[in-house]
Amino acid sequence: MDASEWDERYAGTELVWSAQANRFVAEEVADLEPGLAIDLGAGEGRNAIHLARLGWRVTAVDFSQVALDKGLTVAGDLPISWVCADATTWVAPEPVDLAMEAYLHVPPAARRATTGHAFGSLRVGGTFLLVGHDTTNLTEGTGGPQDPEVLMTAEDVLGDLDAFCRSAGASYDVVKAGRVARPVAEPGHEHGDHDHPGHELRAWDCLVRVVRLT
To answer: Cα–Cα distance between 184 and 186 in angstroms, integer?
Structure first.
């Protein structure tokens, strides 16, 4: 889907995704000292808004202006800059403390580019955080994209980071990297973030959190 198609999708409903931050994003940023953050593929801004409420200064990047406008309406005067741009090519203008990608699903070459830009934007000691639908979700989980090309594993993402670090002379330390389960209410609610007692349905996500060393 291109920007105009996403604009149409975002315009067609009050919220496409949950108003609450993704559960894994909320868990992983809880122990971080607030600073400067970028949220690539921010959509309606639920994770950026969560960060801002914790004291972060956030730049939320997405190529759908409709989505960003909805986020701005919710965020009010929270310290968020809303940037309409392609998250796969956008480069942060200054070093940041947190670079985040949450459910940004693009083909492998675009994913590698985005991950490189994101990690490259970090200051030493900064955190890179990625959450997305795991490749195994296609056969073992529920919801999410049905195109295997845009799915990923933690190993794929670490490979992207390794490639960038070899070219940039950088390094990182892995905090978490693997597959995580996320209960969902019913098929089609692929970004649901609340447990639903009695339901056996689950989605499998890829979670990668690393700290930049050099």
So the answer is: 6
Euclidean distance between the first and the last CA atom of the chain, given in angstroms as a whole number: 36
For 137-191, the pLDDT digits (tens) are 999 999 899 999 999 999 999 999 999 999 999 999 999 999 999 998 764 444 4
Q: How many Å apart are CA 86 and CA 94, to the nearest integer?
A: 18
CA–CA separation, 61 vs 38, rounded Å?
7
Q: Which residues contact 122 (CB under 8 A, 6 or more apart)?
A: 95, 96, 97, 98, 99, 128, 212
Its pTM stands at: 0.88
Residue positions counted in the chain: 214
Structural contact between residues 80 and 60, judged by C-beta atoms closer than 8 angstroms: yes
The contacts found for 73-78 with CB under 8 angstroms, 24 or more apart, are 74/19, 74/44, 74/45, 74/49, 75/45, 75/48, 75/49, 78/49, 78/52, 78/53
3-212 homologous superfamily: Vaccinia Virus protein VP39 (3.40.50.150)
Q: What are phi and psi of 11, to 5 degrees?
A: -75, -20
Specify whether the CB–CB gap between 19 and 75 falls below 8 A.
Answer: no
Beta sheet of 80-84, edge-to-edge order: 80-84, 57-62, 36-40, 96-102, 122-133, 202-212, 172-183
Q: Distance between CA 15 and CA 205 in Å, rounded?
A: 22
